[in-house]
Each structure stands twice: as structure tokens, then as C-alpha cells.
Amino acid sequence: MRRTRISSRSRQSVDAQTLGKLARRLSESGSRLEQQLWQRRLIELINDRIGRRDDDAVEAALDDLARSNQPAYDELADLAESCAESTVVEIDGQPHDALLLVLPLLAWSRYRLPTTTLAMPVCDSLRAHVTGHLLARDARIALADYLFSIDQLPEAFADVRRQIEQLGDAAAEGITLHIDSKKLREPVAMLADTRYLLIGIAARQGSALYHWQESGVDPDSKIAALAAFSEQVAAVLQPAMTGCRFRVLPPNAFHASLRYADRELREFSLEAAVSYLKLAYDFAPGALTAAYGVFEDSSGASGGEVRIGLAKSNQDDDVIEGIVWPLLGDDDEQTMDEVDKALKTLSVNRAVAHAHRFPLEFCDDCGAPMFPNAAGHVVHAEPPEEAEDRPAAPLH
Ligand SMILES: [Zn+2]
């Protein structure tokens, strides 16, 4: 028993070293020909390990490169993501490339945002819109019948691969993939958040995935196709999103789509908070002050974020609603400018930018993030006194 474990661990470290070496050489390549050869060897090794549900070597190599070589890290992360989100399925005896797509929605509500199984007619309708607006003529599609929150989506490379394998098989059979919601985590409740649909598409190897990639089709027809698709999908999903305001984002490959949705959610969350204060308490944007500043983790374990505290304009000690705007690798100053611009767009009366940095603090009792007030202190967001009929106020 012990021997197997040692030999498996040492094999992983050999694999991780090999992946690291190949990624370094790939990042140094000066020609497409050389790049393709390194990529081919990397893809073969990554696919073999992910296919065997073994992420350890890839993760170990990424950890090492993150500390030692950023360009090589980017190359390896890019390949690992694209290997995880795609697979090959056989349809009618022919190998087809299958790709995992995500269709994200940004949503907010005074009530709990849904995570739910979608009714069969909704799935059929979504499937028809993906086929009609997006797919190449001979490409196939399968949908998962569930509206996911971020913490319910697969995270590890091997789990992402398992998801596209299941959807690829469903596409080959022409069926909808049923998701067992009992196995999913309960999402964290937020005023504004993202919801996701998972879609697998499959096309014969080497042929077009999307309609606008087919020969003779104007590549720019993508723009009108996505606009029409989003509009139709919003109408189809309306019944599942009762009590929510939501926006459909364009679908894309799994990892790229999650990153895009994270960025779009930032300004959307601010809009949602301002709209919520108007809807719940009749506080117009013109009567609000926003105080904001950069919060950073002194240990460096997590990326920084801008936190925005909203209050009535004459109450500089209060925060009645708070918004987190993660930096996601962006420059601090540029992000502060973006927040300022977003506040102006929303016609918030007064914006107070704090130049000093705050520590990344959370409430000891409930774990909620703490927000800056206009006076420059970090406080707990508390609903306004007008909200006496609202039971959700923290009691500490
Ligand atoms: Zn608390």
C-alpha cells in the first residue's frame, strides 16, 4: 500500500516537472511551428492526466510556474483550461470535437435568486434558439436542465472534463442532460449574482462550430446573431426568473465565459444596489453618497477589491448597502476610476474616494464584508431605520 502511494506521488512530481519544462520552452518559442510542436506534447500529457481524473500534476506545475515564470504559467493555464472544457465524442462513426459552453445571466432580486431545474419545454425552446441562431449547420447540441450558481459549477479540471463528456454523449444521443440537484451545494444568497446554463456543442473535427464560421457566411453576422439570441433567451427564461431583473450575456467556452461574467457582474451589482434602495426604501440615487476604497489582504493570499458603501447623503457614519467590486487582476487606480464613472452614470449624488488602503475585514459574527463610510471608517452595512418592517437586519 505504502509503496504504491510513494510511487504515485513521485510520478506526479516527474509529470509536474515535465509539464513545467514544456511550458517554459513553449513560452520562449519564436515561431508558430515551434509553438505547435510544444503545444502538441503538452496537450497529449494534460489530456492523459485529466482524462484519468488526475489534476494533481497539472495543479502542481501551475503552482510552481505562478511563482517562477508568468508567461509559462499563462501558456500552461490556457492549455489546461481548453483541454478540460473539450473532448472528442463519436457520432455516426465519426470523431466530433465537443466543447463546453456557458450561457451566463446577471440577475438581482429583493428575494432569493433561483437555482432551479428547468422545465422540459424551456429546455426545448433554448435548444431551438442555440441551434437556430448560433450553431453551424451540422453541429449538435445538448443542454443541462439546470440553472446553476457559481458554487454549483465544476471547478477542478477533471470535473469540468466530466461535465463535457456527459454533455458530449447527450449531444450524440440528441437528449437533454438531467442534473440531480440534490447533489449540488446550496448557493450563498446575494442581492445580485450570476446564474449559468451549461451547453455542450459537438461538430465534426475540423468543421465549423458556429454558423458565422461557415464558408460563405459573413463573420460579422455573429453580432446580429448574438443580439437576437440574447433577446429570445431572455423571453424563454422569464418564467424561471420571476421577481428578478436579469440580463443575458453572450455564451462562450466555459473558462472564458466565467471570467467575462465575473467582470460584468461588478458594475451590474452596483446598479442593482442603487435600484434596490430606490425600490425598497424610495431613496433616489440623487440622495445617496457612495464611499469607496481599495481593500487588500495583507497576507497576499487573495486578490484585492474595491468596496463601496452606500448611505443617505447626510449620514456620513452609516452604510446601508455595500458592494464588492473585485479587482480581478486590474490596476487599483484604473479600477477606482471605473467605479467613479459607474457612480456618475447612476447619478449618485456624491462619491467619496478614500485614497488610503483598508485591510480586507469581515464581520466576526456573520462573515459579511465590512464597508467604508464617507467619514473613512470601516463599518457593518445596516438597513436604514425606515426598514422597521424588514426582519433581515443584523442584530449585532
Ligand atoms: Zn455581521
Account of the 3D structure:
The strands form four sheets. Strands 1, 2, 4, 6, 7 and 8 form a six-stranded antiparallel sheet that branches. Strands 9, 10, 11, 12 and 13 form a five-stranded mixed sheet that branches. A two-stranded antiparallel ribbon has the order 3-5. By secondary structure, the protein is of the alpha+beta class. It is globular and about 70 Å long. The model is unreliable at 1-7 (pLDDT under 50). Helix content is 42%, strand content 20%. The protein starts with a helix and ends in a 17-residue tail after the last strand. β14 (371-372) and β15 form a beta hairpin. Bound molecules: zinc ion (ZN). Zinc ion is lined by residues 363, 365-366, 368, 380, 394, 396.
Keywords:
disordered N terminus; 9 helices; 20% strand; single chain; binds zinc ion; six-stranded antiparallel β-sheet; five-stranded mixed β-sheet; alpha+beta; 15 strands; 396 residues
